[in-house]
């Protein structure tokens, strides 16, 4: 497994010693840890999934060792997922802002790299769920049982980050389509103008020919007058 880009031991210890009343602290710790890890990597879906799994693994490892009275592993895992969602919401906003900036500068949203970024946004929800499922599957029987209702709830209700990512992807897909339509309409307008000129070509040619004939006639008349003198 790749070395985590955060202090996994510190997060494990926090979950190991957490009480039932420390849910808010755990949520913030997970959110801050996830953001710190993401900031050290390119914001690709692959890297996001990797960070999510590593953070979830640390939470599972710590909770599996937690012997504090009254602790409900499911409730604390809910807080961990909420922290992950909060961090990924900021990551999605960072991606949306970057895409908007590039689009405003005229970047082609169907470019290979930007197209992949849009595809990653569309798959964000599934990627998050997939990473958590892998973490749950590797957590051992007791923790896997605690993860089950958390994952079921998440799959049924979705996440804020997933919803925001899907909305951003749709927004930029529409923008890309509009940009293509604009290019097509501009090209069509140019072709229409060229066709209009082509259709009037015969009339224009007649006018030019008429001008040439009048000039020739005027020149001929002047020549006759000169010869009579």
How are the elements arranged and paired?
Blueprint: H1 8-16, H2 23-39, H3 45-64, H4 73-104, H5 112-122, H6 124-137, H7 141-157, H8 160-199, H9 201-228
Helix pairs in contact: 1-3, 2-3, 2-4, 3-4, 3-6, 4-7, 4-8, 5-8, 6-7, 6-8
Keywords:
single chain; 229 residues; mainly alpha; 9 helices; 82% helix
Task: Describe what you observe in this structure.
With 229 residues, this protein is mostly helical. It has one domain. Helix content is 82%, strand content 0%. The protein has nine helices and no strands. It has helices spanning 8-16, 23-39, 45-64, 73-104, 112-122, 124-137, 141-157, 160-199, 201-228. It is rod-shaped. It starts with 7 loop residues before the first helix and ends with a helix.
């Amino acid at each position: 497994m790749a070395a985590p880009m955060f202090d996994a031991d510190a997060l494990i210890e926090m979950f190991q010693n957490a009480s039932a009343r420390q849910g808010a602290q755990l949520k913030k710790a997970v959110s801050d840890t996830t953001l710190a890890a993401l900031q050290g990597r390119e914001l690709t879906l692959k890297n996001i999934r990797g960070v999510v799994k590593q953070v979830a693994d640390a939470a599972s490892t710590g909770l599996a060792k937690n012997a504090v009275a009254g602790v409900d592993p499911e409730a604390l895992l809910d807080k961990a997922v909420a922290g992950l969602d909060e961090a990924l919401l900021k990551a999605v906003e960072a991606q949306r802002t970057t895409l908007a900036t590039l689009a405003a500068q005229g970047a082609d949203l169907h470019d290979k790299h930007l197209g992949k970024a849009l595809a990653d946004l569309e798959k964000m929800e599934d990627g998050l769920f997939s990473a958590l499922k892998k973490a749950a599957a590797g957590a051992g029987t007791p923790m896997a049982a605690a993860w089950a209702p958390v994952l079921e709830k998440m799959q049924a209700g979705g996440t804020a980050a997933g919803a925001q990512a899907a909305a951003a992807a749709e927004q930029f897909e529409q923008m890309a389509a509009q940009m293509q339509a604009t290019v097509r309409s501009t090209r069509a307008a140019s072709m229409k103008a060229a066709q209009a000129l082509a259709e009037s070509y015969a009339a224009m040619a007649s006018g030019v020919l008429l001008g040439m004939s009048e000039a020739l006639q005027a020149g001929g008349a002047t020549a006759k007058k000169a010869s009579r003198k």
